[in-house]
Amino acid sequence: MQYKDRRDAGRRLAGALDAWRGRSDVLVLALPRGGVPVAWEVAHALGAPLDVLVVRKLGFPGQEEFAMGAIASGGIRVMSETEGAWPVSERQLEAIVAREQAELERRERRYRAGRPPLEMAGRVLILVDDGLATGATMSAAVKAARTANPARIVVAVPVASVEAVQSVGALADEVVCPFTPEHFRAVGLWYADFAQTSDEEVDRLLSGSA
């Protein structure tokens, strides 16, 4: 199984979320940048509003694709079980956190463009990304969303590793993932087109949704 691109993945993911279609209490939250095209299709299919939940992965120095944790809005920090795979000093870690915090704040300013965050309390939140490898980023997102006192948190992704689904499933109320390949390796392998999502595309999709 392979998705054509993120928009195709979003349309197919929406089919697995049909139970939430047309409900006034549903809010779709995209993890930018790659989660935004997927989430736009989900929100469009469900007839739900779309917002962003900005999260930043904390990558190992020199091995940035491997997450040792993640941060999210509201001062949330989650460290993964693979944190000790490479030696990282406290000074190195704090430098990485500071850099990613600055980028998190930049993205929030840009993507919101002055729009206030949508109300999350008492709503069903559907958190969407383009895939889960370790689950660290989504775990931070779930913890951040939980502080808003939603009625339910549903994590929805087109593809994920079995381990990530289990990890995130321990935090979320529900995980919807149509495809969990046995030999996962990387999210991008399950897309024919996995080109990086640009800030401009995120701006366009969010402004259109608003």
How is this structure best described in words?
With 210 residues, the chain is an alpha/beta fold. The protein has two domains: 6-53 and 117-209, Rossmann fold (3-Layer(aba) Sandwich), CATH 3.40.50.2020; 57-110, no CATH class. It is 36% helix and 20% strand. It is built from six helices and eight strands; from the N terminus they run H-E-H-E-E-E-E-H-E-H-E-H-E-H. The protein has a five-stranded parallel beta sheet, with helices on both faces. A hairpin with a 3-residue loop joins strand 4 and strand 5 (76-79). The relative contact order is 0.20.
Set out the fold topology:
Blueprint: H1 6-15, E1 26-30, H2 35-46, E2 50-52, E3 55-60, E4 63-72, E5 76-79, H3 90-112, E6 124-128, H4 136-146, E7 152-156, H5 162-169, E8 174-176, H6 199-209
Parallel strand pairs: 1-2, 1-6, 6-7, 7-8
Antiparallel strand pairs: 3-4, 4-5
Helix pairs in contact: 1-2, 2-6
Give me some keywords for this one.
single chain, 210 residues, alpha/beta, Rossmann fold, 2 domains, 5-stranded parallel β-sheet, 3-stranded antiparallel β-sheet, 6 helices, PRTase_dom, glycosyltransferase activity, transferase
Question: How many discrete domains?
Answer: 2
The strand line-up of the biggest sheet is 2-1-6-7-8
Order of helices and strands: HEHEEEEHEHEHEH
- How much of the sequence lies in strands comes to 15-25%
* Class based on secondary structure composition and strand pairing: alpha/beta
Arithmetic mean pLDDT = 91
Query: Largest sheet, if any?
Result: 5 strands, parallel
CATH topology of the largest domain: Rossmann fold
Q: Which CATH architecture of the largest domain is right?
A: 3-Layer(aba) Sandwich
- Globally, the shape reads globular
Number of strands: 8
Radius of gyration: 16 Å
